[in-house]
Amino acid sequence: MQTRRTAYVLSVMALDGAPGNQQRHAYSTVNITVMDINNKLPIFPDQGRISIMENTMVGTLITRFNASDLDSTAIIRYALDANLCEAKNERGIPLKPIDFNCSAYFLLDQFDGTLRVAKVIDREVAEIIKLVIRAEDVASDTGPQIATANLVIDVEDANDNNPKFREPYYKFSITENSKSGTLVGSVTADDLDKNRTITYVLEGYPETLKLIHLDNTTGDVFVFNKIDHEVYNWLNMTVKATDSGVPPRYSRTEMYVQVLDENDNN
Ligand SMILES: [Ca+2]
Ligand SMILES: [Ca+2]
Ligand SMILES: [Ca+2]
Ligand SMILES: [Ca+2]
């Protein structure tokens, strides 16, 4: 351990108590050395907010902490306070430690203060994570010297989920000769990412697509042209749902429309 010495040299003049010019004096030199006692807490201000993308690779550097300490002998060591780590999902609901072991997602090097990804983070699980970091001067002469700082990590969304239809397939039925504009049914897909604006498109044989219309934004399915049961008992189509991510992702499902006989051939 290296100790800073601050040295002062004083010249001291001593006078005796004799009156007037009978007074005698002497000079002397005094050397004073001030030893630095390690008695100051580390200085570790709040670390603000930082963003990382979800799915960032394990080992990626997030940031580096750098606490300071006025004592020359300071030796700073860093640690995460696992008990104070907090994660919230996108609705702001805190995640229980048993569901999301917050501190397990980060690796803090105690010596150099680097914070790295220890486990791939899924934004759909945790969107905001608050870390509490302890900086301790382990060379303290005066008992524990610990300063703590917060760091808020915003997990940015990547488009890593396809839209998902609520049903494995859709089956509707209509009576033949239903008027154009008659509602057949509705399809809905959800997306776990932030790009949840879904566009729906119908795919199938051109002659089938002339009969049925799908609203691109609502997923509502309408009769478009008169459908004759004697020609079609069933209409089979595919619905494609595309999200608004960059690049977009999509999924498909089957849609079956049964055309019921109106008994119009008597
Ligand atoms: Ca100190
Ligand atoms: Ca994800
Ligand atoms: Ca998506
Ligand atoms: Ca995502």
Automatic annotation (TrEMBL):
<keyword id="KW-0732">Signal</keyword>
<dbReference type="GO" id="GO:0005886">
    <property type="term" value="C:plasma membrane"/>
</dbReference>
<keyword id="KW-1133">Transmembrane helix</keyword>
<dbReference type="InterPro" id="IPR015919">
    <property type="entry name" value="Cadherin-like_sf"/>
</dbReference>
<dbReference type="InterPro" id="IPR002126">
    <property type="entry name" value="Cadherin-like_dom"/>
</dbReference>
<feature type="domain" description="Cadherin">
    <location>
        <begin position="2"/>
        <end position="44"/>
    </location>
</feature>
<dbReference type="Pfam" id="PF00028">
    <property type="entry name" value="Cadherin"/>
</dbReference>
<keyword id="KW-0472">Membrane</keyword>
<protein>
    <submittedName>
        <fullName>Cadherin</fullName>
    </submittedName>
</protein>
<keyword id="KW-0812">Transmembrane</keyword>
<keyword id="KW-0677">Repeat</keyword>
<keyword id="KW-0130">Cell adhesion</keyword>
<keyword id="KW-0325">Glycoprotein</keyword>
<keyword id="KW-0106">Calcium</keyword>
<feature type="domain" description="Cadherin">
    <location>
        <begin position="44"/>
        <end position="165"/>
    </location>
</feature>
<dbReference type="InterPro" id="IPR050174">
    <property type="entry name" value="Protocadherin/Cadherin-CA"/>
</dbReference>
<dbReference type="GO" id="GO:0005509">
    <property type="term" value="F:calcium ion binding"/>
</dbReference>
<dbReference type="InterPro" id="IPR020894">
    <property type="entry name" value="Cadherin_CS"/>
</dbReference>
<feature type="domain" description="Cadherin">
    <location>
        <begin position="166"/>
        <end position="265"/>
    </location>
</feature>
<dbReference type="GO" id="GO:0007156">
    <property type="term" value="P:homophilic cell adhesion via plasma membrane adhesion molecules"/>
</dbReference>
